[in-house]
Amino acid sequence: MNVELTPAYVLHQRPFRETSVLLDIFSKQFGRVSLIAKGVRNNKRNQNGLLQLYQPLLVSWMGRGDLQTLTSVEVDKPRYILQSQSALCGLYINELVVKLLPMHIAEPSVFDAYEQILERLQQADDIEVALRLFEKCLLMHLGYGLVLDQEVETGATIEHEQRYQYRPDSGLYRCVNQLDKPSISGRSLQHLLMERDFDKQSLSEVKQMMRSVIHFYLGGKPLRSRQLFASMKQYSN
Questions:
Q1: Cα–Cα distance between 62 and 68 in angstroms, integer?
Q2: 133-150 per-position pLDDT tens digit
Q3: Which domains does the chain have, with CATH numbers?
Q4: pTM attached to this predicted model
Q5: Are 7 and 20 in contact, with CB atoms under 8 Å apart?
Q6: 87 and which of 54, 82, 97, 173 could share a cystine (Cβ 3.0–4.6 Å)?
């Protein structure tokens, strides 16, 4: 396969042999792709930021199989600059895409959502809301769409004051006692469904629910970015 100058981002890179790097990229037309960039560690242009995270790129590659060869790369647009908490959130969304998005399957809607959240993280604009909506978009386009408006057993519409449990393998269940935890209110579910009107309580409940759902689809594997969040919070305390 020969691909010429397709929009893409570097999600992760690691050294390979003496002068090369292995890249995990997210492209709009081809999804996630693994590339080897030969000799770039001796290339001063690369060291100046051409293959950095959050840099919109136009990438070309060629080859067959799971690992192909980078042939050229150009800057597409100015790099998103993420600072402080936004930088940690950027690592988190990159890790989600790497671990949840399958290889070689185009997801242009997820790509657009990825660019949108980078813009919001750069502006530090409602970071918690931006994360929850990106998580929702990612799950939906992977076929794990959340059914947020009705109970799975009865089909009854959610009620604002009622509390529910969300089970990733089935859906929403009405809580019958206070021991049903973790739980989320119908009001918070409505905020997530409509993607607006979030407040401190609903954001907290939605965050807890989304963490549980993502943990399920990751097969219980930990996220390094979350561990980094936890260690940074502990250090700050």
A1: 6
A2: 999 999 998 888 789 999
A3: 2-75 (2.40.50.140), 88-236 (1.20.1440.120)
A4: 0.90
A5: no
A6: 82
